[in-house]
Amino acid sequence: MKRAKFTLLTLLLLIVSVVNSKPTILAYNNNKAELIINQYIDSIKSNKWDAYVELFNYDEATKNDLLSYLKDSKNQAKKEGIHGIKDIKLVSVELTTDPEFISKGDYVYDVLLDMKVNKTSEFYMNGVTRHVFVFRMRGDGLKIETVYFRGLVGKGNEQTAS
After folding, report:
1. One pLDDT digit (tens) per residue for the chain, 162 residues
2. How far from chain centre, in Å, is Cα 152?
3. How far, in Å, CA of 28 to CA of 123, rounded?
4. Residue 42 CB-half CA count within 13 A
5. Which CATH number characterizes residue 129's domain?
6. What's the structural domain count of the chain?
7. Which residue, 9, 65, 71, 115, has most beta carbons within 10 Å?
8. Three-state SS across the chain?
9. What whole-number distance in Å separates Cα of residue 107 and Cα of residue 102?
10. pLDDT at position 20, please?
11. Is 159 inside any structural domain?
12. 41-57: buried (b, 16+ CB within 10 Å) or exposed (e) per residue?
């Protein structure tokens, strides 16, 4: 009888430890994703384009093309698009429940950003905007796969551009 109780108790402890391990991993990745989103914001605010590009899951050719665009003085002088962001702040981060995006990556988050821009455009505008950040887990850690712009938040005018 003692052996059966011991076996049952051991089995229950094993089950509890396995069940409790996934939330720990998920919490770690949630924290890591939020850290990466903050690094994304900081790199935009400080024009640290090398750091910005390294946050993404891009091949070397794509990284080099993007860096060439971001570092081009003519593009910077226009103060349009990403170069036109005067200020950007994180409002909120949460795992998405949007069925359109949930299967696009390993971790997918709804992110609200408050932006102030020099010139509004299709993807950059003043106010709180919704973005969907798609992350992939790679050998070297969590990386941004892509960011979808979903429009201004509030006043019933959320857009659906991506």
Report:
1. 666 665 655 655 545 454 444 444 455 567 899 999 999 999 999 999 999 999 999 999 999 999 999 999 999 999 999 999 999 999 999 999 899 998 999 999 999 999 999 999 999 999 999 999 999 999 889 999 999 999 999 765 444 444
2. 17
3. 30
4. 8
5. 3.10.450.50
6. 1
7. 115
8. CHHHHHHHHHHHHHHHHHHHHHHHHHHHHHHHHHHHHHHHHHHHHCCCHHHHHHCECCCHHHHHHHHHHHHCHHHHHHCCHHHHEEEEEEEEEEECCCCCCCCCCCEEEEEEEEEEECCCCCCCCCEEEEEEEEEEEECCEEEEEEEEEEEECCCCCCCCCC
9. 8
10. 44
11. no
12. bebbeeeebeebbbbbb
Q: Is residue 160 part of a domain?
A: no
Domain range for residue 57?
2-152
Long-range contacts of 97-103 (CB under 8 A, 24+ apart): 98/132, 101/132, 101/134, 101/148
Residue 66 falls inside a structural domain: yes
For residue 6, give both structure tokens. Answer: 């011991």
